[in-house]
Amino acid sequence: MFRWHNYPHFENNYITNEEDRAALDQSENAAYHMGMKYNFDEIIDRRNTNSIKHDFAAEYGKPDGLIPLWVADMDFKVPRCITEALAKSVEHSVFGYSEAKENGAYFVAVQKWFSQRFGFDVDADWLVKTPGLVFAMNAAIRAFTKQCDAILIQPPVYGPIKRCVETNGRKLVTNPLVYANGEYRIDIKDFEDKIVKNDVRLFILCSPHNPVGRVWEKDELAQIGEICLKHNVLVVSDEIHCDFVYEGNRHTIFGAICESFLSNSIICTAPSKTFNIAGLQASNTFIADPELRQKFIQEICKTGYGKLNTMALVATQAAYENGGEWLGELLAYLKRNYNYAKDFIAANLPKARLAELQGTYLLWLDLSSYGLSESELDRIIVEKAGLWVNKGSEFGDEGNGFVRINIGCPLSILEKAFARLAAALR
């Protein structure tokens, strides 16, 4: 295992001496020994690059020098096809108003990606581009509900989903996921009961689910979809992690299940997680129903937002046209990181329980058996382990006792982090 020194001093997350440098060089070659074309073992120093993940510890009330495994962006270089396309645009040196034509190369790239990978065949007029998926969710809430209308979510769930509901003055209704034997499931009876009791108007689906890592099966989605149709509940489906699905699981796009679901849903996607380009702010929302689509567009117009920036268009098209090989190797690497974490936890953190990771690159780790309050657990993780992870309560009260850990980083960093965590909890 890769060894790190000077624990528990956190001022340097990277290399401390020549012995570690030699070990790192060996680790960096591991990708090539796996027959991989892309080197995800490379450690990239992202400090002093305005990275929220790496440079904003003080702003988030954290000490400097923590290993950042929190916000969901990855510490890997994007595929070369993206950087080459961006470089070509920079070389052109004109950045006037830009747009992708309705049936042009941008749409064709997006359409092929979703058709070939998910069997989801989209029409050009379904596509509405927005500067991020959270922006799209907020717009959908305002477009399709009114003040104090009830909106249903399924905690523990991605924090901004709850904030979207509350900051827009809607009534928050929860259908908590049920946790048993290391896996989460939907409480179908409670789902329908809550809809009826609260006259729910809109349901926000997280699929694959962040943070619990579930890839919902088609029959699970069908059950909740039928209930939503029965009670006239519109579905906004957050599918930003759809490309992160591991062997034995298959992502089903909600709107691809049947025509009635397609007509009753807003399908929110983005290349940002898949290709690590969140900073370029691009997302693609699919709305098949013309009336719903027009309401959504009208709400966007009220914000004053116009079009994606030039670089977002360029990067998204390049990613969907030529990024498939890179993604395939990335998934293999992330699966290796997951297997490492699972084995390490089983051997060194006997009280911890890891939810099965079916999708995303985010581990959901149950540390409740250590009998610590969340504040005490956070103190130990920060002060003793020197780690920056997401507290479970950020995803709802149902997350108390859990932490979310981002494994989208070189394996050597993950090894260092888990060694620290085990030592701190011993």
Account of the 3D structure:
The model is unreliable at 1-29 (pLDDT under 50). The chain is globular and about 60 Å long. Helix content is 42%, strand content 13%. Strand 7 (200-206), helix 9 (218-230) and strand 8 form a beta-alpha-beta unit. The protein has helices at 18-28, 30-33, 52-55, 80-92, 105-118, 133-144, 159-167, 188-198, 218-230, 259-263, 272-275, 290-302, 310-322, 324-348, 374-384, 411-425, and strands spanning 67-68, 127-130, 150-153, 171-174, 178-180, 183-185, 200-206, 234-238, 265-269, 283-286, 353-354, 362-366, 387-388, 390-391, 402-406. The protein starts with 17 loop residues before the first helix and ends with a helix. It has two domains: 18-79 and 324-425, Aspartate Aminotransferase, domain 1 (Alpha-Beta Complex); 97-322, Aspartate Aminotransferase, domain 2. It is built from 16 helices and 15 strands. With 426 residues, the chain is an alpha/beta fold. Strands 2-10-9-8-7-3-4 form a seven-stranded mixed β-sheet, sandwiched between helices. A four-stranded antiparallel β-sheet has the order 11-12-15-14, covered by helices on one side. Strands 1-13 form a two-stranded parallel ribbon. Helix 4 (80-92) runs antiparallel to helix 13 and helix 6 packs across helix 12 (290-302).
